[in-house]
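lol ok so funny story. i was supposed to be doing the assay writeup but got distracted and ended up predicting the structure for this chain instead. priorities right. anyway since i did it might as well share w the group, maybe its usefull for someone
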Amino acid sequence: MFLFDREQDVYDIAGLKVGGQPGEHATVLCGTIFYAKHYLVEDADKGIFDKKAAEDVLKKQEEFSDLTGNPCIMQIFSESPEAMEKEIAFCTEVSDVPFLIDSTVADAKVAGLKYADEVGLIEKAVYNSINVSCSPEELEAIKNSRIEAAIILAFNPKDSTVAGKIDLLETGAGTFEKGLVNLARDLGVTKQMCDPATLPIGAGCGSAVASGFAVKSKFGIAVGLGIHNAPSAWTWLKTFRKEHATKGPGGWEGLGADVFKICDIASNIIPVIAGHDFVLYGPIENAPTVFPLVGMADMIVAEANTAEHEIEPVAPHPSINMGA
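and the output, tada:
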């Protein structure tokens, strides 16, 4: 493995540690709940869902977090301001772990931000995300809140290369007057988790993985990916899944779903081997397979850096929880 010459930030988010040198702190795993077409959602706009099923998946993520030593975050994805408030209230009632405020609707995220601020949950909250699509109103809402932790999305629509992502973080790449790192600091975000933005395989996915090394080297901030989106958008894999969906005797029949699942889950170890700090692993119900897999990768990285660079893993960590 490798170390970074630049000192690496380590952030404390309600007791959860994220960042540092590879092998030092366990990879933080973020599972998404209430995502589009999630089986437990009954009315996405009104925030109506199966509470028993939601509690079950939240508790299962915590269970596997305790088992492996990988800290976890609830990625709460909501479709409306009404749903966001209800879903944050429920999730934080049944689970004590930090949570992401996430949506494709800016008003929903701002509502979640204001709600977390008002009810005293802001120390557990991570805003997802500060990006090139943020309006002045959304940025002002972030500034006016007490939020300290946020994901910075390094998606540069003009340049998906490593250089393009660094340019956006450093200068604003012509979109903002300053880079996203300094912009976020001006908004009060001192705990910065950079997501280099996963693109499909063949359209920039490799640069997204590689840019993590550059971001940590230059800025020292925490880095992570929602890498599972790459196989999900992979044309070949989607075709294979469809062509081999029917179950039957012999051959490749019925393998489509299995192959898709393997690629989806296995993709989550790629950022770990590349030295990243957190992974947005997708559907929260995948926790039972994702946590042991990432835990294994964490153990390998930590073993290498302990032997070669005298970096000792800090508890909780799979090397401690899952070691022989």
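The domain at 10-230+271-312 is CATH 3.20.20.20 (TIM Barrel). Residues 58 and 239 are 32 Å apart (CA to CA).
back to the writeup now i swear
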